[in-house]
Amino acid sequence: METAEIARRFLTFFEQNDHTVVPSASLVADDPTLLFVPAGMVPFKPYFLGQQTPPFDRATSVQKCIRTIDIEEVGKTSRHATFFQMLGNFSFGDYFKDKAIPLAWDLLTTPVAGGGFGIDPEKLWVTVYLDDDEAADIWRDVVGVPPERIQRRGVEDNYWSMGVPGPCGPCSEIFYDRGPEHGVEGGPVADEDRYVEVWNLVFMQYERGEGGAKKDYPILGDLPKQNIDTGLGLERLASLLQGVDNIYETDTLGRILQDAAQRTGTRYGAAERSDVMLRVVADHVRSAVMLVSDGVRPGNEKGGYVLRRILRRSIRNLRLLSGGDTAHLHGLTETAIGAMEGIYPELRAGAERIHEVIDTEEKNFSDTLRSGTALFNRAAERTKGSGATRISGADAFQLHDTYGFPIDLTLEMAGEQGLDVDETEFRALMQSQRDTAKADAKAKKLGNADISVYARLLEGSGATEFLGYTDHEGEARVL
Ligand code: ATP
Ligand code: MG
Ligand code: MG
Ligand code: MG
C-alpha cells in the first residue's frame, strides 16, 4: 500500500467516525518554545490547554513533523527520520480511552478490502503505564489482546505532559513484531528494534501543577474534560505494510535513496557504511525540501542552522559516496519534490524557489568543503601524531568560521577517525566572537546612530546563546 493511500485511509476512517479533517500546519511552529513542529498535537495545543475553544470535538490530521533530536539516529535505526508525518486523531473533551483504544485497533486490523490496514493481530503488542489498569483492561477485555502481549512501562515511555501546568496523563503504545530475524523475543520492553513502535495513544486525564518535566510535579486532580491525542508514524506504517526493512526503503524515501545511489555510483546493500550514508542523504534531502517549502532559509542560528547542517552533511556524504566533486543536490531535490508532491502540491508550485535556496547553499559550501577537509585532516593527523584524541576547539572554530563547517559536521568527521573535539573551547571562541561583534555593533550605533541591519539582527536575536537543536521537550543544545 502506497504512503499516500495509507494517509488517505487513515483520514477517511476517522472522518467516518465523525472527526473533522484538519490540514497539516507549517513545520515552523507558531509557538515560541519550539523550533519546529515535532508532533501532530502541536497545532491543537491551545485547545488542550483550554486557551481556545475548539470549533470541533474531534479532529484528525496528517501533520508534517521535524525531530532534530532524532538526527543522529537517522540511517542507523530502521525507524527514525528527521522529517516525518504523524497521523493523528484527537478528542477535545469528547471520547476517551474506551473508544480511542478500540478505534486504533480496528483501523490497524480491519482487512484491506474493508478499508483498514489488514495487520495480523498476532503481530501486535501493546504497552500501558504502570498503574493504568483501565487501559490494560480495555486492551484485554474489550479488544481481546492476550495478557502476555500487554506490557507495563514507566514515566520515560508511557507518561505524557506538555512541560507546563495543564493536562497530563498516561499513554498506551502499539508495537509491531518484525520477527526473530530482527532481534530478541520478549516484547517492546526487551527490544524496540524488533518490536517497532507504531502508534502512541495519549490519555490526558489529570491536571498537573508547576514542576520539572520528569513527573516531579504535583497532580492537582482530574481534568474537568478528558482529551485524546494520538500519533501514528506514516513512514513506519508504510515500511511495515510495504514489507521493507526500514523507513528509508518505502515508496517515497526509497525513490530518493535509489536516485542518490545511482548518481554516486553506489549500490545500496553493498556495505553498511555506504548504506547508512545513502539513508542519511535520502532523509536529509527530503527534510530540507520540506523545510525550505515552509519558508526556512539556511543560516547560523536556530531553524536556519538545522537546515544548513542537514544540507552540508548531505553534500559531504554525497562526495564521500561518489569520490568526486560533482554537485548532486539539484537533481536529488527534484526527485524529492517528485516523491512528495502527491501529498504536497505546493512543492511543485514552489519548486523554483526551493531549487534556488538549495542550489545556493550547495554552491557556497562546495567552494570551501575541499579546503576545509584538508584543514581538518591536518588537524586530525596532528592530534593523532601527538598521541592525543581531541581536536582543538581552535581548529573546530576555524572550520566553522572560515570554511562553514557546522560543529556537528566536525564532530561527525572526528568521530569517524576515533577522535573527539574540544567543544568547551569551541563554544568559548564562538562566544567571544559574538561578544566582539556585539560590542562593535554597539559602538557603531553609538558613534554615528547608524543602526545597520547587522546590528539589528544581533539585538533582535538577543545575540545570546546559539540554539542549534531544540527538541520537543524544549531541551536545548547550546553551541
Ligand atoms: P521511538 O521510541 O521509536 O523513538 P517515540 O516514542 O519517540 O518513538 P512518539 O513521540 O510517541 O515517538 O511519536 C508518535 C509516533 O510517531 C511514534 O509512535 C512513531 O510512529 C512516530 N515517530 C516518532 N519519531 C519518529 C521519527 N523520528 N521518524 C519517524 N516516525 C517517528
Ligand atoms: Mg523517539
Ligand atoms: Mg517510544
Ligand atoms: Mg512513543
TrEMBL record:
E.C. number(s) listed in UniProt: 6.1.1.7
From which domain of life does this come?
Bacteria
Please list the reactions this protein catalyses: tRNA(Ala) + L-alanine + ATP = L-alanyl-tRNA(Ala) + AMP + diphosphate
Record key words, sorted: Aminoacyl-tRNA synthetase, ATP-binding, Cytoplasm, Ligase, Metal-binding, Nucleotide-binding, Protein biosynthesis, RNA-binding, tRNA-binding, Zinc
* Span of domain Alanyl-transfer RNA synthetases family profile: 1-479
Q: What class of enzyme is it?
A: ligase
- What is its subcellular localisation? Cytoplasm
State where it is primarily located.
cytoplasm
**Cofactor(s) this protein requires:** Zn(2+)
The GO molecular function terms of this record are:
alanine-tRNA ligase activity
Which note does the record give on the cofactor?
Answer: Binds 1 zinc ion per subunit.
Share the domain note from the entry.
Answer: Consists of three domains; the N-terminal catalytic domain, the editing domain and the C-terminal C-Ala domain. The editing domain removes incorrectly charged amino acids, while the C-Ala domain, along with tRNA(Ala), serves as a bridge to cooperatively bring together the editing and aminoacylation centers thus stimulating deacylation of misacylated tRNAs.
Family as reported in the entry's similarity comment: Belongs to the class-II aminoacyl-tRNA synthetase family.
Q: What does this protein do?
A: Catalyzes the attachment of alanine to tRNA(Ala) in a two-step reaction: alanine is first activated by ATP to form Ala-AMP and then transferred to the acceptor end of tRNA(Ala). Also edits incorrectly charged Ser-tRNA(Ala) and Gly-tRNA(Ala) via its editing domain.
Protein name, entry field: Alanine--tRNA ligase
Organism expressing this protein natively = Nocardiopsis mangrovi
Q: Which residues of the whole protein are included?
A: 1 to 479 of 890
